[in-house]
Amino acid sequence: MTRRPLYAFAVLAVLLTSSSAFAGVWFELLRAPCLTGDKAKLNNTGRYVGAVDCFNQDFNGAGARTTLTIKAFQQWEYGSVFLYYDITGPFNAANAPTASPNEKGGFFGGITVAVSPKTIAEAALNRKFDWGPLLNVSLKYEAEHVSKFGMLHYYGLQWDLRVPTMDFVTVTTVIRDDWGYRGVDLQVGAAWQKSFSIAEQDFLFLGFFQTGLFGEGEGIGSLEGFRGNRFFLAQPELLWDFGKLIRFTPGKIYLGAEYQFAFNRYLIPGKIENVLQGMVRWNI
After folding, report:
1. Burial status of residue 216 (CB atoms within 10 A of its CB: 0-12, 13-18, 19 or more)
2. DSSP for 39-78, written as a single string
3. pLDDT in tens for each of the 284 residues of the chain?
4. How far apart are CA 275 and CA 9, in angstroms?
5. Chain centroid to CA 151
6. Contact, 9 vs 266, CB < 8 A?
7. CA 210 → CA 4, 65, 99, 170, 184, distances in Å?
8. What single-letter DSSP state applies at residue 219?
């Protein structure tokens, strides 16, 4: 598992399955240098006291981490397909000393398929439906894969909204089905993107949040004795079109930062994470 919590995804899948999204493949390289905080003082959840650019020290590794993310999005006639995988420690050698085995290519990601009944009905009836502020509603399924824990399932709805001045805004309401807990949870999230310019420079402000409302009950198997709790995760990003500045193809190379805030990360009570990461994005 990498920088994305095991309960998190649906997020960037959500972020890129709105009607304004584009098909393509892209890479993101993120680095949390962990320059702040007291490395000699850890609280009981692995957090460096006073840190704002560090991961928690846990089964994924220490506070400083590098993550390579690979993403692909493709629309089809009646919906879309999205997949992504985060790889922790993508440049670590096989014999490199690490704090955790997950730092040697530990991965987290998922595959999402969305199907739009609205689009199917429009094709069958040969007419367009105008639902005002609601652009589209899709049925959504996601299989989420985590190197340490296995696979989780999400089932639900995706709501694409028409919001003036925004590139897109999407809301999801899904059931989270985690094999490690007896119950399921209702997970609500939203994603957005806003493009804007300052002088002749182009920027993107985008991100998402996800929250589990109730928790998933008692753990089973290897998680017996634990309990799935409510959680909150947000990851806003600010990106600058660096390719345009250097007169390379606009919209290809972005530089910026991602800030991650997580409460009850991995569904663990009191496990909070604040991480500021530098970011490079390459749209192929």
Report:
1. buried
2. EEEE-TTSPEET-SS---SBTTB-S-EEEEEEEEEEEETT
3. 444 433 333 333 333 333 334 568 999 999 999 999 888 889 888 999 889 999 998 888 889 999 999 999 998 899 999 999 999 999 988 888 888 888 888 888 999 999 999 999 999 999 999 999 999 999 999 999 988 778 899 999 999 999 999 999 999 999 999 888 999 999 999 999 999 999 999 999 999 999 999 999 899 988 888 888 999 999 999 999 999 998 888 899 999 999 999 999 888 888 999 999 999 999 98
4. 17
5. 16
6. no
7. 11, 23, 29, 12, 15
8. B
Grouping H, G, I as helix, E, B as strand and the rest as coil, residue 30 is strand
Is the torsion defined by CA of 60, 178, 146, 254 positive or negative? negative
Place of tokens 């991995």: 266
pTM score, whole prediction: 0.86
- Are 52 and 38 within 8 A, CB to CB? no
Task: Please give the backbone phi and psi of residue 199, each rounded to the nearest 5 degrees, phi first.
Answer: 55, -120
Determine the 3-state secondary structure of 84 from DSSP: strand
* CB crowding 106-132: b at 16 or more within 10 Å, else e: bbbbbbbbbebebbeeeeeeeeeeeee
Contact residues for 186 (Cβ-Cβ < 8 A; gap 6+): 173, 174, 175, 176, 212, 213, 214
Backbone angles phi, psi at 258, to 5 degrees: -125, 135
E strands of the chain, at which residues? 24-32, 38-42, 48-49, 65-76, 79-88, 106-115, 134-146, 150-161, 168-178, 185-198, 201-212, 217-218, 227-228, 231-234, 237-241, 253-263, 272-283
Tokens of 93: 């050698």
